[in-house]
Amino acid sequence: MWGKGALITLEGIDGSGKSAIAGLLCKELSKRGYPVTCSYEPRFEEYKRLIRGLGEDRESIYVEAMLFAADRLLHYSRILRPALMKGHIVIVDRYYHSSLAYQGARGVPLEWIRSLNRFVPRPDMAIYLDVDPRVGLSRKEGEAWDKARFQKLGLLERVRGIYRRLAEGGELILVDADRPLSKVYGDVLSLILGFLGRRGGRD
Ligand code: TMP
Predict the structure, then answer these.
(1) In the chain, what are the domain boundaries?
(2) Does the 6-198 domain belong in CATH 3.40.50.300?
(3) Considering the entire predicted model, what is its pTM?
(4) Quick check: 181 pLDDT over 80?
(5) Torsion angle of alpha carbons 162, 165, 170, 176, nearest 10°?
(6) CA–centroid distance, residue 95 to ligand 1 (Å)
(7) Whose CA is nearest to atom 19 of ligand 1?
C-alpha cells in the first residue's frame, strides 16, 4: 500500500522505555540506509491543552477519546501519510493502540474507539513494551503534562491489561520491557529488521 514505506508503532505505559527506544531505532535505521521519519502522539499542543482542561465526568472521557482521535487524524494527514507516500519507514511513539488501551481503561468501549479511529490506517507492525506499572512509574521522573490524568497505578494496571489482551489477539507484538534498555532495544531492532527484510523494504 505504501510502496516501500511502513508504519511501525511503539506502545506501552510511560516508563516502558518507548521514547528512548524510538530515538535509538530512528538513528540505527537511518545509519543502515533506510529513509526514516520519527514521530509521536499526542502530536499537537492545542489538543494536549484541550485534553488537560477536561473534567472527569463520563462525557469528558468520551471527548478525550475524540480529541486523541482528532490529533491522530491530523498527524496522519499532515505528517505520516506524506512520509509513507515517500517510502519512509515511519516510527511512531504511540498511535491507535494507545487510545484503545488508555481510553478503554477509562471506560470508553473499545468498539467505539475503533470506530472513531477508522479514518487512519492500522500500523504495519505494532510493538508493545510490557512492563509492570510500578516499575514504569518508578522510572518516570519529574512532572509530565499528563501526570494528574493518566499516571495513576490503578489506571495503568487496566491499561496494561488491555495492551496484553490486544497482544494475545495478535494486534500487538509483546516485548518484555522489564529488562535493561539495551536488551529491550536489541529485541525490538531485530523484530523490525526481520520485518523489513521479509518485505524487501530497502531501496
Ligand atoms: P506523552 O506526551 O508523555 O507521551 O504522554 C502521552 C499520554 O497521553 C500518556 O499518558 C498516554 C496518553 N494517551 C492517551 O491516553 N491516549 C492516546 O491515544 C495517546 C496517543 C496518548
Answers:
(1) 6-198
(2) yes
(3) 0.94
(4) yes
(5) 80
(6) 9
(7) 98
Kind and range of the H or E run holding 40? strand 36-40
The pocket around ligand 1, CB under 6 angstroms, is made up of: 14, 41-42, 68, 94, 98-99, 102-103, 144, 146, 150
**How does pLDDT run across 153-179, given as a tens digit for each residue?**
999 999 999 999 999 999 999 999 999
| Residue reference for cell 499537537 | 44
Distance 145 CA to ligand 1 centre (A): 10
Distances 48 to 19, 51, 160 between C-alpha atoms, Å: 18, 5, 22
d(CA 178, CA 129): 9
Pocket test for ligand 1, best of 95, 146, 162 (most atoms within 8 A of CB): 146
Ligand 1 atom nearest 99 alpha carbon: 18
Out of 38, 63, 94, 137, give the residue to mutate to test ligand 1, the one with the largest number of ligand atoms within 8 Å of its CB. 94
H-run or E-run covering 181: helix 181-199
The set of cell numbers assigned to 111 is: 468498539
> What does the pLDDT look like over 18-38, one tens digit per residue?
999 999 999 999 999 999 999
